[in-house]
């Protein structure tokens, strides 16, 4: 079943995070992920407000997790660590 990769992010270092974003998009696409929301308008109703929210769709939970652990994404992630506060989860959809 399809899965959504959902990230909630507060960027603390724009330059370093820009390096992450430049590498993360191609890594996600290489693993079959397609962005369906990225830094778009949002309304925070509950919980911690994170001004950058990203949703990508993958074919399966396993594909999304494999992407996260891939060398390409881990290289991108090395630029986000220390440059952001973030939560990331993968959830299976009911489609």
UniProtKB/TrEMBL annotation:
SUPFAM superfamilies per UniProt: Dimeric alpha+beta barrel
InterPro entries, sorted: Dimeric_a/b-barrel, DUF1330
Gene3D superfamilies: 3.30.70.100
Superkingdom in the source lineage: Bacteria
All residue ranges annotated as the DUF1330 domain in the record: 2-92
Pfam families hit by this protein: DUF1330
Protein name: DUF1330 domain-containing protein
Organism encoding this protein: Celeribacter baekdonensis B30
């Amino acid at each position: 079943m399809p899965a959504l990769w959902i990230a909630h992010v507060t960027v603390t270092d724009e330059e370093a995070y820009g390096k992450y974003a430049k590498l993360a998009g191609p890594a996600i696409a290489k693993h079959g992920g397609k962005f369906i929301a990225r830094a778009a308008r949002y309304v925070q109703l509950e919980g911690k407000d994170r001004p950058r929210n990203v949703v990508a769709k993958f074919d399966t939970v396993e594909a999304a997790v494999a992407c996260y652990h891939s060398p390409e994404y881990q290289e991108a992630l090395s630029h986000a660590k220390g440059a952001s506060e973030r939560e990331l989860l993968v959830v299976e959809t009911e489609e």
